[in-house]
């Protein structure tokens, strides 16, 4: 133990031996200051640190890489801001959310650090001084008053209450509102009441290092050459609040970041759903497909350019790149163009849907518990769809299936059971069946009911010593505190409902617990008030399953009282103990009635025996290493040869709706395991009462199954489940139960030995229900881990108390907390929380099922609509020389045209309503089987998208391929083709989501029609004349947006090889000689071709230029008109002068071209038009601009 604290000596904690290395040779004190820092960022680190955290997500890195590619001029096929804007929006929204959260943490830290407390600084002052929390240091003595928050982890020294008791509220620590008591050591309470004594205090504390164990503290105090043991009862933890105590003093042990509450503020393990994991693999698959498609198109472009592009003079760009180099650039261009296979909007939409589903759970009034004003709470937004895939539920019993409101119902004393058997006493008067009248006892709790009048008469007579000893034990052997002064309406503060019920029962039978101090317990026995000196308290824990107290009676006798589970008590009974068989019979009867039982016993101890044991006990108390084990050994020495008195039976009623809920969940093929500390008979009968077990089930008991190997469990230390981690996980090829029918397994984990753990899991998972009895909290967690490890199933753990926290945290998938009678620790560790077990039915069968179906439908359609859109580019590549072409439609498609309808399906869709979901639990099965979203569904969406993209592209292409109007002119061009294709896509995807929508609302209808309306609105704006006036530099032609890059569009036909190219700027070189046919020849015969030389162009081509312009290569507007085709050769001719009109018209045409920013245009026709042209001037011209 290296943690040492010296009272009233700040300099001591700065000694070199307490320094730790921070960086290189820089050192600082290992003792933290009391200022806390929960915020993550400051003004300098916010931007870099937040960006670093966000770019740890693979999706953000992917889109950043796309943005970098788009900045490179030779690669980009899309304006860089089309990726930058959505990426910045996503990063910005996340950053703003993180900033708002962090500013709130800054404010909270500032408020807490500036709280005031009273400190005795280094013992130099005769009065305490007010100081801010951030200025408090380890070793300071502080004074706390009523309703003060505790500023650090403090060793309590003294208080204004008798015997140094102090009441604290731990709501901020563990969520529990009931008061707990702490106490200082007797020696400090007696000697450290005044300020002078506190200033002179120089004790040295040696204790464990700072840790997050809220339930444990081990240390010793060395003062005046004496060593005193310290435990958690002596500690006031930061975050608690002083109650019912005027003043108390304490010594700071842990400060700031070293306090237990701050140590518990670590990061929670991030849970991912099965759909998350599957979606990640699918994204990797899509990216692999994207790379393969881009590589194929790049190879195609390489061959195309080598065979065709390099020989086309009008494609010359002056860069001199080789075909392979151009193919390499084309590969990256297609990576950009086809990135819509995995758009950034996918991740944003998924988070929006999950947030909405969490809100629906929070707003569900049918999961609201009015009695405690407790709504259901989704404490996470990432696991909603996982609720629709649960296969195994692991449930605690007490407080989860039951109400955890204990009532003392029956008992057995000295072999006699005190119960009312109505069937046998039916002939007696009705008075027998009336509750006992407690008017004779002024301290009685009027709410307590008991039916057996004979026991009251026996106790009041004072003749039955066993009955008197029975209730005296109940009033003395406990850790209950009295809340308030001695009044007739005393309120007991109990650590567990069991203890409160037993002490209340003793109170009503005339043995009234009045008060306790550190050394005494005072009770009223009939008309007498007696005080008993408490020599030792052997406290209860989940491993010991018993508690004992050693008392010195007023007459000087020393007696040990003990109460605990029958399994541990019967092992420690004396051979001379009486009534063991009759008591065991009564215990079995009580257990069959689902009552909770405890055995009561005592032992008289001689003074010499106690003195020898006390020495060993004190030695064990000051052991620093493994103190618990040392104390357990000492406790075992004294807790033996016990004499049995009797047993109690406490009723814990089931919560409302538990049997119906379990029956519904079982019909949904959800297997339920109940993990309880009760004995076998109690657990079995609870199983029947809550419909977990049914009459048609064949029940197998784990300890009786001899023909199969069972789980390997070692008992070291006793009653601890230790899983053999060396066993091999091999799925059993044979079934353990070969007969047909239903079967259940009931297991006492302490009886299972010698077998591989996989066999236990396989055998248990074949059963419809499993009950594990006599389990400790650690064993609960181990059972959950076994199923999680060997079955790979989706599991859910549900509990209500601190003993269920390990089980809830060990669940990889879903943890549910019930806000019951045992505080809020289970809720604080859970993913979902509500007040009653019956709400689990609605959480899974309604919200879980809906969330799963909605998410699956959303993902299937999202992948489909993006495949259908993106693959149109793929088909177009075969007709454009494999050159990547894009426009604003790509950006707007996922942003405006198709996002809202599918998002609303993910939020609102219902295949059936909630009533039918609960009425037919079998509807839950598809989620367990994962049948709505898997690789099969993914590839169906892929092929569906491929099919739709083929239809969308090739039907318009075929329609426009050989189209001609009545006037002999082609009515369409590339722009019309693109608009028709895009419109078809928008109609199809919105119609498809309409067909897939099961639950129509106004917002769904508005979203579908609104998306189509937005598309046509934007398309109308782009194709209107007004936008050219507003943005003439960007919209050079109707419906065409000009990019900053020089884009090249290639049209290739297998029959003909005409090409259309757009080049912006100067003519880099003269065109090669072209074959020209004399128009004056007879059109019915093919004339002899002659070569047309490039200089001068105006001698062979219709040339128009504005006055003062250069004639060669500068701002030249030339029109090359194909005339007709002979074989595979395109013939070119001079445009007839009459086709251009008079000179007054030509400048106007050229002026219009100049206004549109065209500096150099080469125009050509579709191949079908070339074949049909009979005149010297083409019927239609296709304009291909640089945009």
UniProtKB/TrEMBL annotation:
Its EC number is 7.6.2.1. It catalyses: ATP + H2O + phospholipidSide 1 = ADP + phosphate + phospholipidSide 2. Mg(2+) binds at residues 396, 398, 800, 804. Residues 6-84 form the P-type ATPase N-terminal domain. GO terms for cellular component: plasma membrane; trans-Golgi network. The keyword Nucleotide-binding applies. The chain crosses the membrane at residues 55-72, 78-100, 281-304, 331-350, 858-876, 888-908, 938-962, 974-993, 1000-1020. It is found in: Membrane. GO terms for molecular function: ATP binding; ATP hydrolysis activity; ATPase-coupled intramembrane lipid transporter activity; magnesium ion binding. Keywords: ATP-binding, Magnesium, Membrane, Metal-binding, Nucleotide-binding, Phosphoprotein, Translocase, Transmembrane, Transmembrane helix. Residues 827-1033 form the P-type ATPase C-terminal domain. The active site is at residue 396. InterPro entries: ATPase_P-typ_cyto_dom_N, ATPase_P-typ_P_site, ATPase_P-typ_TM_dom_sf, ATPase_P-typ_transduc_dom_A_sf, HAD-like_sf, HAD_sf, P-type_ATPase_IV, P-type_ATPase_N. It holds the Pfam family PhoLip_ATPase_N. Belongs to the cation transport ATPase (P-type) (TC 3.A.3) family. Type IV subfamily. This is Phospholipid-transporting ATPase. The lineage of its organism: Eukaryota, Metazoa, Chordata, Craniata, Vertebrata.
């Amino acid at each position: 133990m290296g943690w040492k604290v010296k009272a009233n000596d700040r300099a001591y904690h700065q000694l070199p031996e307490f320094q730790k290395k921070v960086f290189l040779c820089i050192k600082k004190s290992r003792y933290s200051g009391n200022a806390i820092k929960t915020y993550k960022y400051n003004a300098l680190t916010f931007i870099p640190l937040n960006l670093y955290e966000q770019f740890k997500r693979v999706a953000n890195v992917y889109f950043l890489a796309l943005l970098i590619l788009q900045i490179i001029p030779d690669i980009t096929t899309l304006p860089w801001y089309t990726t930058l804007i959505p990426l910045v929006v996503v990063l910005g929204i996340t950053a703003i959310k993180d900033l708002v959260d962090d500013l709130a943490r800054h404010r909270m830290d500032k408020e807490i650090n500036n709280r005031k407390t009273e400190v005795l600084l280094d013992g130099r002052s005769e009065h305490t001084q007010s100081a801010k929390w951030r200025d408090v240091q380890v070793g300071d003595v502080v004074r706390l008053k009523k309703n003060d928050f505790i500023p650090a982890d403090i060793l309590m020294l003294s208080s204004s209450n008798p015997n140094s008791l102090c009441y604290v509220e731990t709501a901020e620590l563990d969520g529990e509102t009931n008061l707990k008591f702490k106490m200082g050591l007797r020696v400090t309470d007696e000697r450290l009441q005044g300020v002078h004594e506190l200033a002179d205090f120089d004790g040295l504390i040696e204790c464990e290092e700072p840790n997050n164990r809220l339930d444990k503290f081990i240390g010793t105090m060395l003062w005046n050459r004496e060593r005193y043991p310290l435990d958690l009862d002596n500690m006031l933890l930061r975050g608690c609040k002083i109650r019912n105590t005027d003043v108390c003093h304490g010594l700071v042990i842990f400060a700031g970041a070293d306090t237990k509450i701050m140590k518990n503020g670590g990061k929670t393990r991030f849970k991912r759903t099965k759909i998350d994991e599957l979606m990640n693999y699918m994204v990797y698959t899509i990216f692999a497909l994207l790379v393969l498609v881009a590589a194929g198109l790049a190879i195609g472009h390489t061959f195309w350019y080598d065979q065709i592009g390099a020989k086309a003079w009008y494609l010359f760009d002056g860069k001199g790149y080789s075909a392979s180099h151009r193919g390499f650039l084309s590969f990256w261009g297609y990576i950009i163009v086809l990135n819509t296979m995995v758009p950034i909007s996918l991740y944003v939409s998924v988070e929006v849907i999950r947030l909405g589903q969490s809100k629906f759970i929070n707003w569900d009034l049918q999961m609201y518990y009015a009695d405690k004003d407790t709504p259901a709470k989704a404490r996470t937004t990432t696991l909603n769809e996982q609720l629709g895939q649960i296969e195994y539920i692991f449930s605690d019993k007490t407080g989860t299936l039951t109400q955890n409101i204990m009532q003392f119902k029956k008992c057995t004393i000295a072999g006699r059971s005190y119960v009312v058997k109505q069937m046998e006493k039916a002939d007696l008067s009705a008075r027998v069946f009336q509750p006992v009248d407690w008017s004779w006892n002024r301290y009685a709790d009027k709410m307590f009911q008991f039916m057996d009048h004979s026991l009251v008469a026996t106790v009041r007579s004072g003749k039955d010593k066993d009955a008197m000893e029975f209730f005296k034990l109940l009033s003395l052997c406990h850790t209950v505190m009295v809340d308030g002064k001695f009044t007739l309406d005393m309120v007991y503060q109990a650590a567990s409902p069991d203890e409160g019920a037993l002490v209340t029962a003793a109170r009503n039978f005339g043995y009234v617990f009045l008060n306790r101090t550190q050394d005494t317990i005072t009770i009223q026995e009939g008309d007498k008030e007696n005080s008993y000196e408490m020599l030792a308290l052997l406290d209860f824990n989940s491993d010991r399953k018993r508690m004992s107290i050693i008392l010195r009676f007023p007459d000087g006798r020393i007696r040990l009282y003990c109460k605990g589970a029958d399994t541990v008590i019967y092992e420690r009974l004396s051979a001379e103990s009486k009534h063991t068989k009759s008591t065991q019979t009564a215990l079995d009867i009580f257990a069959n009635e689902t009552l909770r039982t405890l055995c009561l016993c005592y032992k008289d101890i001689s003074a010499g025996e106690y003195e020898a044991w006390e020495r060993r006990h004190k030695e064990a108390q000051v052991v620093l290493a493994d103190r618990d084990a040392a104390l357990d050994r000492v406790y075992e020495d004294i807790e033996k040869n016990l004499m049995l008195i009797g047993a109690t039976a406490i009723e814990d009623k089931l919560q409302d709706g538990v049997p119906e809920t379990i029956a519904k969940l079982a019909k949904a093929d959800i297997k339920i395991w109940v993990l309880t500390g009760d004995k076998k008979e109690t657990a079995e009968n609870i199983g029947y009462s809550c419909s977990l077990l049914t009459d048609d089930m064949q029940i197998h008991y784990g300890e009786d199954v001899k023909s199969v190997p069972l789980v390997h469990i070692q008992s070291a230390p006793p009653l601890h489940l230790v899983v053999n981690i060396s066993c091999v996980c091999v799925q059993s090829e044979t079934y353990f139960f070969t007969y047909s029918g239903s079967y259940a397994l009931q297991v006492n984990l302490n009886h299972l030995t010698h077998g591989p753990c996989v066999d236990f899991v396989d055998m248990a998972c074949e059963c419809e229900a499993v009950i594990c009895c006599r389990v400790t909290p650690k064993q609960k967690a181990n059972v959950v881990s076994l199923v999680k490890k060997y079955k790979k199933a989706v599991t859910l753990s549900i509990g209500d108390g601190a003993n269920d926290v390990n089980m809830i945290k060990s669940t990889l998938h879903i943890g549910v907390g019930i806000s019951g009678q045992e505080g809020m620790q289970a809720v604080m560790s859970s993913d979902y929380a509500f007040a009653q077990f019956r709400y689990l039915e609605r959480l899974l069968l309604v919200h879980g099922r809906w969330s799963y179906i909605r998410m699956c439908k959303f993902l299937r359609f999202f992948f489909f609509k993006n495949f259908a859109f993106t693959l149109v580019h793929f088909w177009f590549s075969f007709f454009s020389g494999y050159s990547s072409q894009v426009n604003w439609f790509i950006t707007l498609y996922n942003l405006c045209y198709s996002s809202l309808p599918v998002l609303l399906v993910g939020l609102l869709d219902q295949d059936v309503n909630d009533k039918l979901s609960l009425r037919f639990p079998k509807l839950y099965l598809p989620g367990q089987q994962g049948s709505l979203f898997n690789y099969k569904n993914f590839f169906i969406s892929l092929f569906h998208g491929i099919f739709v993209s083929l239809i969308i592209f090739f039907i318009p292409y075929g329609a426009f391929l050989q189209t001609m109007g009545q006037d002999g002119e082609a009515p369409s061009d590339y722009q019309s083709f693109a608009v028709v294709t895009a419109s078809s896509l928008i109609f199809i995807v919105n119609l498809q989501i309409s067909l897939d929508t099961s639950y129509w609302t106004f917002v769904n209808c508005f979203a579908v029609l609104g998306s189509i309306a937005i598309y046509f609105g934007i398309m109308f704006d782009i194709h209107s004349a007004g936008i050219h006036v507003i943005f003439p530099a960007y919209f050079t032609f109707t419906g065409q947006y000009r990019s900053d890059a020089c884009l090249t569009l290639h049209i290739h036909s297998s029959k003909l090889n005409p090409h259309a190219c757009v080049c912006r700027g100067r003519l880099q070189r003269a065109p090669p000689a072209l074959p020209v046919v004399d128009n004056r020849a007879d059109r019915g015969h093919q004339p002899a071709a002659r070569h047309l030389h490039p200089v001068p162009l105006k001698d062979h081509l219709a040339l128009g230029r504005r006055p003062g312009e250069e004639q060669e290569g500068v701002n030249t507007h030339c029109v090359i008109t194909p005339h007709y085709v002979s074989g595979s050769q395109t013939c070119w001719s001079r445009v007839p002068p009459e086709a251009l009109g008079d000179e007054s018209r030509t400048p106007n045409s050229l002026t219009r071209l100049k206004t549109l920013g065209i500096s150099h245009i080469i125009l050509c026709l579709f191949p079908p038009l070339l074949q049909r042209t009979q005149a010297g001037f083409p019927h239609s011209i296709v304009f291909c601009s640089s945009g």
